[in-house]
Every structure is written in C-alpha cells, then in structure tokens.
Amino acid sequence: MTAADSSAAPDAVRRRFLADLGLFALAAACAPLLHAQPRLAGAAAVRQWLQQVQSLSRRLRDGAIDSAQWRSEIDALAAATPLREFLPQLQFDRALAALRRDGHDPVKTFVTLAEADGTLRKAAFAAAYFVFAKGQVITPHGHRGMVSAHAVVSGRLQLRTYDRLGRDGDALLLKPRLDTVATPGFSAAISAVEGNVHWFVAEQDGSATLDVIVQDIEANGREFALELVDPLGAEADARGVLRAPVIDWEQSSRKYQSGGT
After folding, report:
1. How many helices (H) and strands (E) does the chain have?
2. What is the pTM of this model?
C-alpha cells in the first residue's frame, strides 16, 4: 500500500497500512545487502554505512548486544553519517515521486538491497522510506518483536516518543521521552523500552524518514506486533507515568488523523 485510499473505510485503511508495516518487518528476513546498480555499486561510503548497519543488526539478532545498545549505536551512526548526500544513490527520488496527498498515511517505499557485485546474501535488516505530505500521520503505536531506527532525511516532522515501562491490563505504561520538531540529521531509534512508542506528524510536504528495521528478536515478546495506544487519553500518576489505553484501528484513525495534538 502506498497511501490511504479515500474510498475505503477508515478502519480498513488503518488495518491495511499497519499490516503493511508488518510486511516491511518480514522483509528483513530475506533482504539482500546492497543493490547492484552502477550508481550505487560505486558508492563506497554508502556501502560502508549499510555494512555498519548490517553488523549492528546481525549482532542484535545473534544476541551479542541488546536492543538498548543497538538503539544507541545506530542513532550515533546516523548522526555521524551524511545520509542526505547518499539519497540519490539510495533511491530517494523514487520514494518522493510516489508521494500522495489524498490520504492520511505516508507512502512507504523500500530501498532495494543487494550486494554491489550482484551476489545476494541475506541482510539482518530491511530499509524503507516513509514520505509524508503535510499533515499526514503515523499514529501513536508501540512495538513487539522488533526494533527500528528513523533518520529524518527531508522536511519537518513533529515527533513524540515514549518509553514503554510495562503493561497494565488493557493499557501500556508509558513515560514521555521526547517531543520535538525533527529535521534532517535527526535520528530516533527504538528499543524494547526506550522510545518504543512513537508518533509522527508531518509539518511539510515531502517530509521523510529513512527507516531501518530488525525483526525476529526478543523485544516485549518475539512475535511481531504493533499496538496502537492513546497517550492523549492517558491518566498520569504522581511519577508522570501514563496509563495509555490500547485502542483499535478505527479509534486511532479517528482521533489522531483528525488533528489530535
């Protein structure tokens, strides 16, 4: 799916969009490493970055590091890497061309990955762009069985993240972590706890993140799942911990794609 179909019911739209995020995660299991295109095959700096991401993600999947260390190291890698210089080689023009302004959801476009010499071998991660028109939203949700990193490469995004402290019946216990306007050069990765719940709202057309995702790890359980939550409807205790109800697709779409702030 690329963007919301205005003829579809909101519940079906959200189900399809977030199910598509699940397919994105599943693709990590069989993604080759670097695309064999002439432009990309000659880009040593791009290959080096992807190989560093591969190393970090493989160490995570093998249990050599935990999700908190992966999060810290991949954010540091993004901060030290001139990703904007790599965008033409990483097919950002294709992603931007797919942008639609007639729906609530951003466009998801995979980065094609393969070895530079054309030899395929599995990568421990998948990569994709999420490209937003102004006002498009990824509604608040938490993660199980996976981690992800989100490097802003274009535009401006209102980004809110929450640490996931546990579960209480039909709610997640959250601690607000970050509320900022993210611009190119900013990276926000998640772990099983830190920043595990996030929420994106685009402030400009063409706002975009380059996402890396690693699945099939122990992070709040091994089974992949996205849990939509309602931080605006949360109750806060004396410590500032939010008890945020887990909500369904239709509730999330209705509240957070209609200007919830």
Report:
1. 7, 12
2. 0.85
